[in-house]
Amino acid sequence: MKNLLRALISQGIEALRANGTLPADTLTPEFVVERPKTREHGDFATNAAMLLAKPARSNPRALAQALLDALPKSADVLRVEIAGPGFINFHLAPSAYQREAASVLKEGADYGRNLSGNGRTVGVEYVSANPTGPLHVGHGRAAAIGDCTGAPAGCERLERQARVLLQRRRRADREPGPVHPGACQGAQAR
C-alpha cells in the first residue's frame, strides 16, 4: 500500500510541476509515507508538501492543498485530508484491506516474500550476556530480538531474501564470535 501511495504522491508532484505550481527544476524530495501516531489521522500520512514548500517558496498548507487537488483518484483511497502544518493524511477504503487479506490467504507462506536482498549477505547479531557482569534491561531486549531473528523460523524468512550470516556477541567487549551449530535449535527450544 505504501508503494501505491508513493506513486500517487509522485504523480501529484509531477502534475504540480506541469501546471507551474512547482518550479520545473525542483527535485522530488525524500518524503515518507508512514503510519500516523493516532488512528484519527488516517491509515497513512506523508510530509511531501512540507518538504516541497521551501523550494516552491510557498506556505506548506497551501502546497498541501494543491498537492491534494493534483493527486490522481484511486479506488483504494477513501479520503485524503490536510492536518497540522501540512501533513497529508490518507484514509484507505475497506476494499483495500479486503484485497490485501485475500492476497495473504492466496499466497500463504510466500506472502511478503521479495527479492530485496538480491543474494546479498545479511548479518544478524544478537547478544549473549556476560554472566559475571551486571545485567540490565537492554541485555534482555537484545536477547529477545536475537532469539526472534536468529531462531530457525526467523532464519528461514531472512534466507528467502538474502544469505544470512549469524553472529552472536559473546563478551562484554563486543568481540564477535562464531555461532554454535545448535544456536538456532537452542533459540527454538527456549
Description of the structure:
- The chain contains seven helices and seven strands.
- With 190 residues, it is of the alpha+beta class.
- Strand 3 and strand 4 form a beta hairpin.
- Helix 1 packs across helix 3 (60-70).
- The longest helix is centred in the first third of the chain and has 17 residues, at 2-18.
- It is extended, with a radius of gyration of 23 Å.
- The chain starts with a helix and ends with a helix.
Mean pLDDT: 78
How much is the radius of gyration in Å?
23 Å
Enumerate the strands of the largest sheet in spatial order, edge to edge or round the barrel: 1-2-4-3
Low-confidence stretches: 166-190
Number of helical segments with 4 or more residues: 7
Main sheet properties: 4 strands, antiparallel
H/E series: HEEHHEEHEHHEEH
Sheet/helix structural class: alpha+beta
Number of DSSP strand runs: 7
Beta-strand content estimate: 15-25%
Can you give the helix content as a percent range?
Answer: 40-55%
> How far apart are the first and last residues' alpha carbons, in Å?
35 Å
- Overall shape: it is extended
